[in-house]
Amino acid sequence: MLNPDGVYLGNYRCSLMGFDLNRHWLDPSPWAHPTLHGVKQLIIQMYNDPKTSLEFYIDIHAHSTMMNGFMYGNIFEDEERFQRQAVFPKLLCQNAEDFSYSSTSFNRDAVKAGTGRRFLGGLLDHTSYCYTLEVSFYSYIIGGTTAAVPYTEEASAKAACPAGHAACLGFLIHQYFPQDDKCPANKRRQLPTLSETGPVAEVAAVPGVLMCLERQEVGVVAGKMKDRT
């Protein structure tokens, strides 16, 4: 948690001194934004350490107006990198009932330049993926229905476990296949199921990503994302 003092005072966005910390990543002050300054220095130190591979950055927030969980990602000139970063939110949408891929967006809005996602997306290399994960304060709507499910303590716990499993699966996928070369069929690896009866994900790079998750196939082939059912 980067804003413990603000949260203690009941602020959901601003720090103790009234700053929106997720707008000050470009030049955080050790005096005015001490937690942000410390985390930024740690990330830069890890990035410059040849023994460390920094592959994921996820900034988690609650959203005051939209429903469901969703993500913000970055836009890159490298189309394959841009398409590959869509894989992780696709996995969350496939396996977490409260996550909405249709609400997920990828942008380079100037007003968001000071966010962790935007700053670190420009700092880190092509092997790193930076996201903002937003979850509604209020409720979520399950696909195919119109009824909102409030985020009660029970509902939050029910939704969080599949989301956590999907996140871990996403991390595994980025470890299990190469980023640049085609992966022969005999080199494909079976990833763990999300549950005893859940889907098994088979991953191969062609030359980016080819994944089959249950009945939905998410592919990056020749630089184009395709959904097939």
From TrEMBL:
Which GO BP terms apply?
A: proteolysis
This protein's cofactor list reads:
Zn(2+)
Q: Which residues form the Peptidase M14 domain?
A: 1-175
**Top-level lineage group:** Eukaryota
The record's listing under InterPro entries reads: Cytosolic_carboxypeptidase (IPR050821), Peptidase_M14 (IPR000834)
Q: What positions constitute the catalytic site?
A: 134
| GO MF annotation, one | zinc ion binding
UniProt lists the family membership as follows:
Belongs to the peptidase M14 family.
Give the protein name, as stated in the record: BEN domain containing 5
